[in-house]
Design goal:
Layout lengths: L15 E5 H6 L10 H7 L8 H32 L9 E7 L5 H12 L8 E5 L7 H7 L13 H12 L5 E7 L4 E10 L4 E5 L21 E6 L2 H17 L17 H24 L8 E5 L5 E7 L2
Length: 317
């Protein structure tokens, strides 16, 4: 009888390393936890379940990796300048953070700002959100886009590209518009000022969008590293509703809030309202515009139902 040869199945080729939670957490074994529980609570967004364990096992090693990328890029920039026999013109290392509404990307961006600033090579870290590059409500109304706020066409893409171009050109000072979540609008004459930090983190729904035309520059062309925060759509919908209910008891209750009209809704009315916004606006935007950009990221954080990261995809170098 002929011997039977067993052929081991081959894993499909991928440009990413797939790292499970336990393997990724081991990377933090020799790293000191730099944040206190109070600091984590202050960073945590409404509805997020960030705790010291999640910081230590997921975001501390991620911040270390980002710091290594940033310092290595800075060394390469200095070496290039030396080769060209010119003054070192190394510019800030830019990190993009993308993902759905309510997936926790804002919390992650704030957390990475704090963690990266604790590493010796990246002490100065600034955070800019793309909310500041939304068109003002008056302009959105004029264009008939108020019901599509957050979709790619609701942003002043040229202004965002101009801002990042100045950052990556080494400008001494660059200003970004300021967005108020209380007003749900751009605040005239208010700005976020960036003065040549070591790192600039840019957080927003659509920062990994491809360019609208072949000869245009994509926002992500100006990133040195990009992160996509991923989760099951049903989980995100649940988090969105939970956040809406929490905001109804908090920020929405402020008489100055744009959403104060929702403060007195019953629980049932609030859930129905939140699901209406999710189904009509946020879910279509996620499916049509945000989710298709995941493959453009350098690193993907995959979350489970409890907001905890379950695995990491890291693009191979």
């Amino acid at each position: 009888m002929d011997a039977v040869t067993t052929v081991e199945p081959t894993r499909p080729l991928s440009p990413y390393r797939e790292i499970d939670r336990a393997e990724w957490a081991r990377l933090a074994a020799d790293l000191d936890q730099p944040l206190s529980e109070t600091e984590v609570v202050e960073i945590r967004g409404i509805g997020d379940r960030l705790d010291l364990t999640e910081v230590r096992e997921v975001y501390l090693p991620l911040s270390r990796l980002l710091s290594l990328y940033a310092t290595s890029t800075k060394r390469l920039g200095a070496a290039t300048s030396a080769f060209l026999q010119e003054e070192d013109t190394t510019t800030p290392f830019v990190v993009g953070v993308a993902g759905s509404v309510a997936v926790g990307k804002s919390t992650i961006a704030r957390l990475l700002r704090e963690l990266m600033s604790r590493w010796p090579g990246t002490p100065r870290v600034e955070l800019v959100t793309t909310d500041g590059f939304l068109y003002p409500n008056a302009e959105l109304e004029r264009r008939g886009l108020m019901e599509r706020k957050g979709f790619p066409e609701s942003y002043d893409r040229r202004a965002l590209i101009s801002f990042l171009t100045e950052v990556k050109s080494g400008a001494a000072e660059v200003r970004a518009p300021f967005y108020s979540h209380m007003r749900y609008d751009i605040v005239p004459d208010a700005h976020v000022v960036v003065r040549r930090p070591d790192v600039v983190i840019v957080e927003g729904l659509n920062v990994l969008q491809p360019p609208p035309a072949p000869n245009d520059v994509a926002v992500s062309d100006l990133f040195d590293f990009s992160i996509f925060v991923d989760a099951d759509t049903d989980h995100i919908a649940s988090w969105y509703v939970d956040r809406f209910l929490a905001l109804r008891q908090g920020a929405f209750s402020n008489p100055s809030s744009y959403f104060n009209v929702f403060a007195h809704l019953t629980d049932e009315e609030a859930v129905q309202t939140a699901m209406g916004y999710w189904n009509d606006i946020n879910m279509p935007n996620l499916v049509e515009n945000v989710m298709p950009t995941k493959h453009r990221a350098t690193l993907v954080l995959s979350k489970g139902a409890d907001h905890a990261v379950e695995s990491v995809l890291l693009r191979k170098v």
